[in-house]
């Protein structure tokens, strides 16, 4: 997932040093460890939150195309693969981190199911084309500060994926308490849960 406030506790910041505890938590790859550099640009969603999110998403993940917009380590997209997603696309603007996703996928034996895009999630989303009939599972977990500093861009990005997604798709948005989920289009259809400091909203189309 994306950068959060400060450096992960216990991290040395060495790019090639895995952090103990980052792992796939469910599905066919359950228990498999993921390499995580501890770099300040990336910080994965906590295991308890990730588990809660996938419990809420349920079996609809299976067969979907997972899109991890602010991918960081790629933990969400790889978790989706473990739980039966047909493929995952990862958007990551930090080159060493995007390469780390590829290495993790190769180590898990799922390299053929993934596509890593080195680029900006805002630009990539703006250029994405509608028409895919396969249900999507979209993960949107940017740095929390984006909801303050780039508020309108975030609202536009989320609205874009609500528009693009086909029937049966699910969109997951992770923010913190400063973001008002009521500002989203079709706000009444978002299932919003609190996992302090995270706040997670899920939209089902």
Explain what the structure shows.
The model is unreliable at 1-20 (pLDDT under 50). The protein contains 6 helices and 7 strands, in the order αβαβαβαβααβββ. Helix content is 28%, strand content 20%. It has one domain (47-204): Rossmann fold. It is globular. With 205 residues, it is α/β, with parallel strands linked by helices. The two termini are 23 Å apart.
Strand and helix map with partners:
Elements: H1 47-57, E1 65-68, H2 75-82, E2 87-92, H3 95-108, E3 114-118, H4 121-127, E4 136-140, H5 146-149, H6 151-164, E5 170-176, E6 190-195, E7 198-204
Parallel strand pairs: 1-2, 1-4, 2-3, 4-5
Antiparallel strand pairs: 5-7, 6-7
Structural class: alpha/beta
**Average pLDDT reading:** 87
Shape: globular
Strand content: 15-25%
Order of helices and strands: HEHEHEHEHHEEE
What is the CATH C level class, in words? Alpha Beta
Write the CATH architecture name: 3-Layer(aba) Sandwich
**What can be said about the biggest beta sheet?**
7 strands, mixed
CATH homologous superfamily? Vaccinia Virus protein VP39
How many domain units?
1
Low-confidence runs (pLDDT<50, min 5 residues)? 1-20
> End-to-end distance, in Å?
23 Å
**How many strands?**
7
Spatially, the strands of the biggest sheet line up as 3-2-1-4-5-7-6
The CATH topology? Rossmann fold
Percent of residues in helices: 25-40%
């Amino acid at each position: 997932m994306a950068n959060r406030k400060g450096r992960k506790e216990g991290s040395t910041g060495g790019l090639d040093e895995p952090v103990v505890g980052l792992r796939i938590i469910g599905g066919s790859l359950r228990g498999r460890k993921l390499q995580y550099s501890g770099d300040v640009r990336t910080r994965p969603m906590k295991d308890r939150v990730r588990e809660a999110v996938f419990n809420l998403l349920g079996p609809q993940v299976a067969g979907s195309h997972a899109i991890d917009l602010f991918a960081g380590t790629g933990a969400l997209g790889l978790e989706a693969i473990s739980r039966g997603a047909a493929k995952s696309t990862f958007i990551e603007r930090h080159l060493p981190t995007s390469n780390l996703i590829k290495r993790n996928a190769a180590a898990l034996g799922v390299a053929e199911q993934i596509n890593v895009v080195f680029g900006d999630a805002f630009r990539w989303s703006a250029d994405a084309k509608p028409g895919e009939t396969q249900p999507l599972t979209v993960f949107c977990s940017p740095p929390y500060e984006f909801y303050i500093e780039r508020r309108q861009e975030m609202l536009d990005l989320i609205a874009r994926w609500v528009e693009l997604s086909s029937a049966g798709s699910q969109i997951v948005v992770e923010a913190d308490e400063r973001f008002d989920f009521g500002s989203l289009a079709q706000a009444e259809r978002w299932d919003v849960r609190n996992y302090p400091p995270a706040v997670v909203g899920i939209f089902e189309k």
